Amino acid sequence: MTPTLVRQHPPRTGAAPRVDLRARARDWSEIQERMLVPLYEAVYERLDVGPTTRLLGLGCGSGLALLMAASRGAAVTGVDACADRLALARERLLPDERDARVRDDIRIVRGSPGEAARADAYTVVTAFEPIGCLAGDAERLGGLLAEAVPLAGRGAAVVLTGWGPPERCATASVLRAAAGPAEPLRGGTGAWRPTDRDDLERVAARAGLWPDGSGRVACPFGYADADSAVRGLKSTGLFDPAVMATDQAQVDKELAEALHPYQRQDGTVWMPNVFRYLVARVA
Questions:
Q1: Nearest to 244 by CA among 25, 40, 17, 49
Q2: How far is CA 108 from CA 60, 117, 164, in A?
Q3: Under a CB-based contact definition with an 8 Å cutoff, are residues 56 and 126 in contact?
Q4: How many other C-beta atoms are found inside a 10 Å radius of the C-beta of residue 52?
Q5: 15-167+193-221+273-282, CATH topology level
Q6: Rg (Cα) of the chain, in Å, rounded?
Q7: Helix, coil or strand: residue 90
Q8: What distance separates the 2 farthest-apart alpha carbons in the chain?
Q9: Does residue 197 contact residue 139 with C-beta atoms inside 8 Å?
């Protein structure tokens, strides 16, 4: 089957970039998504996720975090707007189409959180896509929470995640360097911005949640080679503003150069990172 190509907003010069969304989703699933496994594990352990848990995963992507929760016995619902990532999530969690029609303990929903309502209120809501590097990401998360929080029961845990301090996140410096071509877009939605230590608390407060503890987790990004690193990082979508400002080739070049200090003699790429999570509760 021929991959679907989607034309994005035109760059400032040259031809408009085209993104193979299926390839990007596959890169996310095969290369990038596993980088946050320590974060998923830390959160699930802290909240004792298990057979009594009804979990809603916002921006569930290709479903690895959902799979980990389901393996602990939780009933999971994942919601995302990306059809290509969700197709991979279904392959992981509901490989038998008959299960997809009859199972209520595993649900994959395309669309907004409001479409993921179930008879029993959720006991845990997770937003594992870290905020804190792009302008507008906190506002987008707030919009998701506005729909998701009413679906959770009183006292339910809502987990928000963000990038750690820039000095402890090598990838943040790579993002900043490679985002240079997007300078004309600075200040608009999607432009790079420095992480703020109170990002998560502000989002929780606006959503009417009360904080109930936080933690930091080391999540190093490791890749087999520079090409895998470029593909994995681009699959996050964090570099799309730079692509729109210039072109794909220029961003690939800037990204490869920014990764150079983190490439080892054997060709592998290793970037230490720290991510922060906040556990908030539904009033």
A1: 17
A2: 9, 12, 30
A3: yes
A4: 10
A5: Rossmann fold (3.40.50)
A6: 19
A7: helix
A8: 55
A9: no
